[in-house]
Amino acid sequence: MAVSIRDIAREAGVTVGTVSRALNNYPDVSPTTRERIVETAQRLGYRPNQMARNLSSKHNHNIALVLSGFLEEELINDFDALLMKGCFHYTVNNDVEMSIQVINTKIQTEKVLNSSAMSTTSPARS
Q1: Could you give the C-alpha distances from 80 to 8, 45, 104, in angstroms and in order?
Q2: pTM of the shown model
Q3: Cα separation of 3 and 43, whole Å?
Q4: Which DSSP string do the residues of 33-66 spell out, in sequence order?
């Protein structure tokens, strides 16, 4: 189970709020307390939960790259490769998480058509 700031607070003998302020570099935490909290967090193997941070922040540190037609006959062209490389470099340099979603228009169209055909077919009446 992941280590939470509650675990750090309990172990360091401080409040959850103090842990949060220390880990987010607020100036109202004494250097001694901050050091104790950071050492405790490292010892416990704490890693910030990016989803929780996004919920409590006005900033989102996630981007998604959606690739359409990825499974079609044509290989990735130079533009696609440069786009993926550029996105990756941006995420590394800006502390942003990236997910890649692959969709295939042909497969999705077939699924939509098949599900539509099934939903509009009514059972035969006797």
Answers
A1: 43, 37, 15
A2: 0.47
A3: 10
A4: HHHHHHHHHHHHT----HHHHHHHSS---EEEEE
**H or E element at residue 91:** helix 78-93
Q: Which of 84, 92, 93 is nearest to 64 (CA)?
A: 84
Residue type at 106? K
Cα 63 from Cα 109, distance rounded (Å):
25
Instruction: Give per-residue pLDDT as tens, 50-92.
Output: 666 666 666 677 888 877 766 666 656 778 788 889 988 998 8
Of 108, 103, 110, the C-alpha closest to 68 is: 103
Under 8 Å between Cβ of 60 and 52? no
Residue with tokens 């079609």: 72
pLDDT digits (tens, 9 = 90+) for 12-51: 999 999 999 999 899 999 999 999 999 999 999 998 876 6
